[in-house]
């Protein structure tokens, strides 16, 4: 229902039928390109659950007072454990509204608590009296959002985290949006971030071909992620390069900075100057490749998602550094689904902290994965133009570049920067709230 309401809200601006989602990446020729202004963003359908929850018909205590059952006017029901209700009392003694945080101390919570009395204050609110006479009230909308049913939790999860991915291969219809639009229009900025989360890559077009645009982009979302290479960094051919990116050589598919414990979630690459020949950018959907690998060679997937690789980065830039880290090439969640790729062949250490017998199986597995990444079916090639800013999910999308001839002076120049997903998702939620005019 929340979804339906969001669509109704959008319908004033959005062509019917487009409000729900982006077309699949392999269909539709203009993924956000061109006429983006009034097209719905994919995440709007996952809009923050809206008001209009049904009223409450009946409320009762069950399970000897350990559970409260709410019956809604639409006939559905929700069940709330009393320990959770007491823990989440919204009264000023238990909850600091200015910080939107719990004041109640855990040691003051009776984890075996039962209700003394529960009643329906009106159809929009329930009241509970606890054995110590403390009184709590809970609004219908507040309760509905926090319903423990599988369906309600999935809806809340989707609204908070936009977990859905749209996988792509060489058939990617590269999402593009004007830089100016996302800088000054909240709906466009929201669409940008939703697409970045869902597809993993968006090109912002028409930025000025000079340094400094990424600093502005950083202010737009909140702030950039500082690393040992500085707040932003210049990808160009440099004498005595302290990074393989700062040469004219080919870069094979990699994610940036797996040598950090928490690698940057989002990367920005702003093309300031482009070489006439070579220097094409290659990208591949790492999560899609992981699914393929799991299907094709589960053993290789198992190896890459269990063996930790040593990474190293030693040098001097923003300051001097000697960074070391252990990362699995494929980080997986409890269901074995890839959640982050940590693969950079340049900074993979010569030190390899595994037993000798495991070394060859590891290389064989990595070869399988690397071949998949480079398969014609999966990789996508694109040459950035001056003014393009490639924004992408550095936990999911691997990138590389083709070599280019070295010349006199700088023939190719990209400025790069990072942001954390926490910052990006925070901005996305705030933009959505603003657009939908919700608290
Ligand atoms: Zn209270």
What would you say this structure looks like, in words?
The chain folds into two domains: 56-155, NE0471 N-terminal domain-like (2-Layer Sandwich); 165-439, 4-Layer Sandwich (Double-stranded beta-helix). The protein is 26% helix and 25% strand. The protein has eleven helices and 22 strands. A hairpin with a 3-residue loop joins strand 15 (308-316) and strand 16 (320-328). Residues 89, 91, 93-94, 134, 136 line the site of zinc ion.
Secondary structure layout:
Blueprint (H helix, E strand, L loop, with lengths): L1 H9 L45 E7 L4 E6 L4 E5 H6 L7 E2 L4 E2 L14 E6 L2 E5 L5 E5 H6 L4 H12 L14 E3 H6 L1 H14 L1 E5 L7 H9 L11 E3 L15 E4 L11 E8 L7 E5 H11 L1 H7 L3 E9 L3 E9 L1 E3 L5 E4 L14 H18 L6 E3 L6 E5 L3 E5 L11 E7 L1 H16 L3
Parallel strand pairs: 9-10
Antiparallel strand pairs: 1-2, 2-3, 4-5, 6-7, 7-8, 10-20, 11-22, 12-21, 13-20, 13-22, 14-19, 14-21, 15-16, 17-18
């Amino acid at each position: 229902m929340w979804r339906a309401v969001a669509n109704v809200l959008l319908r004033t601006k959005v062509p019917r039928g487009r409000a729900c989602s982006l077309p699949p990446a392999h269909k539709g020729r203009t993924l956000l390109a061109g006429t983006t202004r009034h097209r719905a963003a994919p995440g709007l359908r996952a809009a923050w659950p809206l008001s209009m929850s049904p009223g409450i018909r009946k409320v009762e205590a069950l399970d000897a007072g350990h559970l409260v059952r709410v019956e809604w006017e639409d006939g559905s029901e929700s069940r709330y454990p009393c320990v959770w209700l007491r823990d989440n009392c919204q009264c000023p003694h238990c909850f600091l509204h200015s910080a939107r945080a719990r004041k109640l101390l855990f040691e003051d919570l009776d984890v075996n608590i039962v209700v003394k009395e529960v009643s329906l204050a009106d159809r929009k609110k329930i009241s509970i009296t606890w054995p110590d006479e403390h009184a709590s009230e809970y609004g219908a909308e507040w309760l509905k959002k926090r319903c423990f049913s599988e369906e309600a939790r999935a809806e809340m999860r989707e609204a908070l985290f936009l977990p859905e991915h749209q996988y792509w291969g060489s058939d990617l219809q590269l999402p593009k949006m004007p830089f100016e639009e996302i800088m000054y229009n909240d709906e466009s900025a929201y669409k940008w971030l939703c697409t970045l989360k869902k597809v993993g890559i968006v090109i912002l077009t028409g930025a000025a071909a000079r340094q400094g645009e990424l600093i502005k982009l950083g202010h737009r979302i909140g702030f950039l992620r500082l690393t040992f290479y500085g707040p932003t960094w210049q990808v160009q051919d440099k004498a005595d390069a302290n990074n393989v990116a700062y040469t004219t050589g080919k870069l094979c598919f990699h994610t940036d900075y797996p040598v950090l414990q928490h690698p940057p979630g989002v990367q920005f690459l702003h093309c300031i100057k482009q070489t006439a020949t070579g220097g094409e950018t290659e990208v591949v959907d790492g999560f899609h490749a992981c699914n393929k690998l799991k299907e094709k060679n589960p053993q290789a997937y198992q190896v890459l998602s269990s063996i930790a690789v040593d990474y190293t980065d030693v040098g001097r830039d923003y300051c001097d550094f000697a960074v070391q880290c252990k990362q699995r090439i494929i980080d997986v969640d409890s269901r074995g689904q890839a959640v982050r790729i940590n693969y950079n062949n340049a900074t993979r250490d010569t030190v390899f902290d595994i037993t000798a017998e495991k070394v060859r199986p590891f290389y064989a597995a990595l070869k399988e994965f690397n071949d998949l990444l480079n398969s014609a079916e999966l990789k996508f090639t694109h040459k950035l133009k001056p003014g393009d800013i490639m924004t992408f999910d550095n936990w999911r999308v691997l990138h590389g570049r083709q070599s280019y001839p070295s010349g006199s002076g700088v023939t190719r120049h990209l400025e790069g920067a990072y942001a954390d997903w926490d910052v990006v998702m925070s901005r996305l939620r705030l933009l959505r709230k603003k657009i939908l005019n919700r608290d």
